[in-house]
Write a structure and sequence with these properties.
heterodimer; A: alpha/beta; 6 strands; 34% helix; 15% strand; disordered N terminus; B: 7-stranded parallel β-sheet; 8 helices; 45% helix; transferase (chain A); endoplasmic reticulum (chain A); EC 2.4.1.141 (chain A)
Chain lengths: 187, 216
């Protein structure tokens, strides 16, 4: 399954634990496949979660010059391997998925799910894209144009978490003396 | 007649106690750190609430660098949530070695549960939390916003008020709250000793909050 081993560049689409059929639909069009091919991608790996919609194009090796080679699945215990093997990630706007992609240092397109009625996803997507860490599509219909931006842009590296200030705040509130040599306990 | 005097005196005392507690506990502005446990033996008894899904992932991130020589953590888990424990086991096998550190409570509100039936389960969860918090006697309480954390915080503050068992309450807002606080965040804003947010824009709106850089 490791697509990197087979060469070529992979797009990984992930919806996390949710369902996001409108996103699957957007990456299952000939236009998207053509666009992705033109941008230098060969493979499309789709994690479609609880959704009803599965990608149809490109799964049986038909006129493959135009289409990406598509693999799809619902869930895996850990997506990390697929995240790391991918070259570009198209993700729903869940915090966990966004962070997993950015920590792996991947080019990322965040797609907000408007049917979730959860505007924090929009807020988070906007905040992350405005900070330059990723590209964003505020609605699935914006995926084609946002994909182009994501494929071309040179994203900023997401900084590694630094808990020193947080721990200092806790230590001060507790009155526990600050560490002389803060040894970051292995996680 | 003397009975009335006694009752009035007792009432006055209770009010005084409540006022003193409220004065120390409630504030919407940042105050200098209270250094509550200065000089106390280490490690401090610490309690963290592991809720569900993303909250648990974020809590594990926050717990990563805690000096175990200073804080000995125990954990409250929502009992319908088995993934949280698995998540902890995967990320921190050292923490699950001793399962007696984990305490399950009934979840106060399932997503989509009606408000009337959630009132009953909240009451039950609160009783369970009272028992657990009484036994653990936490000196530090670390929460990051799942519904499960509210009855735990209520129990700890109840003991602080009634039995004078003070606690340092640390609240960390969820990473996805960029411009506004979560319901739990709004509930605990005035009560927390340390109120941490992930996005600087929130500090402008909520001056008690502090931004501590990238934590996730």
């Amino acid at each position: 399954m490791t697509s990197a081993a087979r060469g070529g560049r992979t797009i990984f689409v992930t919806v996390g634990t949710t369902s996001f059929d409108a996103l699957i639909e957007q990456v299952d069009t000939r236009e998207f496949h053509r666009e992705a091919r033109a941008a230098g991608y060969d493979r499309l790996l789709v994690q479609h979660g609880r959704g009803d919609r599965e990608p149809k194009l490109g799964r049986h090796g038909e006129d493959s010059a135009d289409l990406l080679e598509v693999t799809a699945y619902r869930f895996k215990p850990s997506l990390l391997e697929d995240v790391e093997a991918a070259d570009l990630i198209v993700s729903h706007a869940g915090a966990g998925s966004i962070l997993e992609a950015l920590r792996a240092g991947k080019r990322l397109l965040v797609v907000v799910n408007p049917s979730l009625m959860d505007n924090h996803q929009l807020e988070l997507g906007e905040a992350m894209s405005q900070s330059g860490f990723c590209a964003m599509a505020a609605r699935p219909e914006e995926v084609p144009s946002a994909f182009r931006a994501a494929a071309e842009a040179e994203p900023k590296v997401y900084p590694a978490p630094d808990l020193a200030r947080f721990h200092r705040a806790v230590q001060e509130a507790c009155g526990v003396a600050p560490c002389a040599a803060p040894e970051a306990a292995a996680s | 007649m003397p009975l009335v005097v006694w009752v009035l005196a007792l009432l006055l005392l209770l009010l005084l106690r409540l006022a003193c507690w409220a004065r120390r506990r409630i504030s919407t502005a940042r105050r200098p750190p209270q250094r509550l446990w200065q000089g106390h033996p280490l490690p401090l008894r610490a309690l963290a609430v592991l809720g569900s899904g993303g909250h648990t992932t974020e809590m594990l991130g926050l717990l990563a660098g805690f000096d175990q020589g200073r804080y000995h953590f125990q954990f409250v888990l929502a009992d319908t949530d088995t993934t949280s424990l698995k998540k902890v086991g995967a990320a921190r096998p050292d923490l699950v070695e001793d399962t007696s550190r984990f305490h399950a409570v009934t979840r106060s509100r399932e997503v989509g549960q009606s408000w009337s039936s959630s009132a009953v389960s909240t009451a039950r969860a609160f009783l369970e939390c009272l028992t657990i918090v009484w036994a653990i006697r936490p000196q530090v309480l670390l929460v990051n916003g799942p519904g499960t954390c509210v009855p735990v915080v209520a129990a700890a503050l109840f003991f602080e008020l009634v039995f004078g068992r003070p606690v340092v309450l640390i609240f960390t807002e969820s990473f996805c709250r960029v411009k506004s606080l979560s319901l739990t965040g709004r509930m605990l804003y005035a009560l927390a000793d340390v109120f941490v947010v992930h996005w600087p824009a929130l500090v402008e709106r909520y001056p008690k909050a502090q931004y501590c850089g990238v934590l996730m």
